[in-house]
Specification:
Helix content is 45%, strand content 17%. It is of the alpha+beta class. One of its GO terms (molecular function) is diguanylate cyclase activity.
Length: 118
């Protein structure tokens, strides 16, 4: 196998970015947030719709295949933390809640979606 872990991770992130962008509306925003994490800002949706979108994204990532070389590819899964805006004026509060939910999703065995507590 050729390529470093970083090269493979970059290839996976490119695949994920395409999947993410394909699952959200033009009014939504997709950001790379850290090494292999993404942040999706869904405008004007409640937690029910956000969890529905997260589920679609997770299933599409799981169904995607990322080529590593001409002969090898890898499948990946996603753990997703969802947080709905609770009126707090600082966006970091919302991101922190989503990150905590992400950690819970990873601790729950990965490849799942967890909604942050309000």
């Amino acid at each position: 196998m050729t390529g470093s872990g970083t090269t493979r991770a970059t290839g996976c992130c490119r695949t994920w970015r395409g999947v993410l962008i394909g699952q959200v509306r033009a009014s939504d925003l997709v950001f790379r947030y850290g090494g292999e994490e993404f942040l999706i800002l869904l405008a004007e949706v409640d937690h029910v719709k956000a969890c529905f979108v997260a589920g679609k994204v997770r299933h599409r990532i799981e169904a995607s295949v990322t080529p590593l070389t001409d002969e090898q590819s890898v499948g990946v899964t996603a753990s997703i933390g969802v947080a709905a805006h609770d009126g707090h004026p600082d966006f970091r509060h919302l991101v922190d809640r989503a990150e905590k939910a992400l950690c819970q999703a990873k601790a729950a065995g990965r490849n799942c979606t967890v909604l942050a507590e309000s």
